[in-house]
UniProtKB/TrEMBL annotation:
<keyword id="KW-0430">Lectin</keyword>
<dbReference type="InterPro" id="IPR051077">
    <property type="entry name" value="Ca-dependent_lectin"/>
</dbReference>
<dbReference type="InterPro" id="IPR001304">
    <property type="entry name" value="C-type_lectin-like"/>
</dbReference>
<dbReference type="GO" id="GO:0005615">
    <property type="term" value="C:extracellular space"/>
</dbReference>
<feature type="signal peptide">
    <location>
        <begin position="1"/>
        <end position="19"/>
    </location>
</feature>
<dbReference type="Pfam" id="PF00059">
    <property type="entry name" value="Lectin_C"/>
</dbReference>
<feature type="domain" description="C-type lectin">
    <location>
        <begin position="139"/>
        <end position="263"/>
    </location>
</feature>
<feature type="region of interest" description="Disordered">
    <location>
        <begin position="30"/>
        <end position="95"/>
    </location>
</feature>
<keyword id="KW-0176">Collagen</keyword>
<dbReference type="GO" id="GO:0030246">
    <property type="term" value="F:carbohydrate binding"/>
</dbReference>
<protein>
    <submittedName>
        <fullName>Collectin-10</fullName>
    </submittedName>
</protein>
<dbReference type="GO" id="GO:0005581">
    <property type="term" value="C:collagen trimer"/>
</dbReference>
<dbReference type="InterPro" id="IPR008160">
    <property type="entry name" value="Collagen"/>
</dbReference>
<dbReference type="Pfam" id="PF01391">
    <property type="entry name" value="Collagen"/>
</dbReference>
<keyword id="KW-0106">Calcium</keyword>
<dbReference type="InterPro" id="IPR016186">
    <property type="entry name" value="C-type_lectin-like/link_sf"/>
</dbReference>
<dbReference type="InterPro" id="IPR016187">
    <property type="entry name" value="CTDL_fold"/>
</dbReference>
Amino acid sequence: MMQLLVLSLLVAMFSYTSASPEVCSNVLVPGAKGDQGETGEEGGEGKLGKDGPPGLPGVPGEPGLKGEVGHAGKMGPIGDNGDKGDKGLDGPTGFKGRPGTTCDCGRYRKVVGQLDVNIGKLRNAVKFVKNVVLGLRETEERYYLLVKEPKRFREASVNCKLRGGTLAMPKTANTNRIMADYISQAGLTRAYIGVQAQNRDTVGTISHVYVDSSPLQGFASWSPEEELHFRSSPVTNSTCVELLSSGTWSHVECEASMFFICEFPKSRRRGGGGERGTAASTSEH
């Protein structure tokens, strides 16, 4: 009985599948639209988007209040000169002055002319005293005196200082020639001048200085033989210098006694100046 029932069921299922025109498919067919659901809760804040395009210019605002006065700026450049103003009114007339004196111009010219003559005579007299009586020589800046008293170098230097000067320092060829002629015209052959050798340095070089401690620069009157001899064979005490009448310099022992030349700067006084130290030299000449 049970087998008959199962067999009947299988026959019925086969008949139904054979008679159905539809084909079985895996595609899901959407159903009808359902009813609208309830509104959900508000979500969180999203990310900031990009800046949008600039908007249109707004309406101009009202003018603001006037600000405080600022600091004064720097002074500007000077402007051009203005136009000349109108002429002012004439002032009141002054009081009448005292009558002047008559000028005797001819008389004053005569007096001035006589003064010029007297000044010329005085200059000639001074020149005669300097060159003949005192035997001085001079340049534009200095006087030179040949002292005919034999002294050693140090004594000669002190003697010139006591007279108000120093031992003569020929720093130019012209000054050297004047001093050399001075010696020659006095009938002498040599005289001390204010030049002295310094000690040798570590290299063995010997330098010379004037008595005012300034180094020899630009001028020296050594003979070639003298300069070579002193560099190669220096003598311990031959560090002083003499000027020969020929105009050349020579080393000499500082203990030797000989004549010397002093120099005196000219005074800077108004009117050409006189001489400084010359009065002291007259008693020694």
